[in-house]
Amino acid sequence: MMHAIDPTCPICNGNGVEDPAGFAMIPCQRCSHEAANEPQPEDQDNETMSKRPFDTLPLSQQAGIICNDPRFQRFAAIRSGFPDDRLATEDAAEYLRTVCKINSRRELATDAIAQIRFQAMRTDFDAWAGKIPNQR
Predict the structure, then answer these.
(1) With 0-12 CB in 10 A as exposed, 13-18 as middle and 19+ as buried, what is 79?
(2) Short-list 53, 33, 51, CA closest to 41
(3) Going by fewer Cβ within 10 Å, which terminus of the chain is more open, N or C?
(4) CA angle (118, 121, 122) in 5-degree steps
């Protein structure tokens, strides 16, 4: 049974979440609970419930998040030959799709080669951003 996505949801902002196969947007856990009239856990606030470690998110969601990161936008600009600029979110997403050789972030859910390219790009970005030591 499909539940409606709550447009006022503080978890998914009314956008839902990508299904595990990456083919559709489905209600987040909170939207599903509300639609089913199930009570929300009283001992956890919405912020705590929505936080997950970045590395546990689907790759397509990770890709969307890093494209909004100003550091990644700067990294993508430098790698694209614009050392004095920062790319817009849409341009950073285009850079990511080009590097991973995909047409849509959803392909990261099923394309093993694109997944490897994405992980390699993430490693390069993390090293560039100082999150991990530079590779030799």
Answers:
(1) middle
(2) 33
(3) C
(4) 85
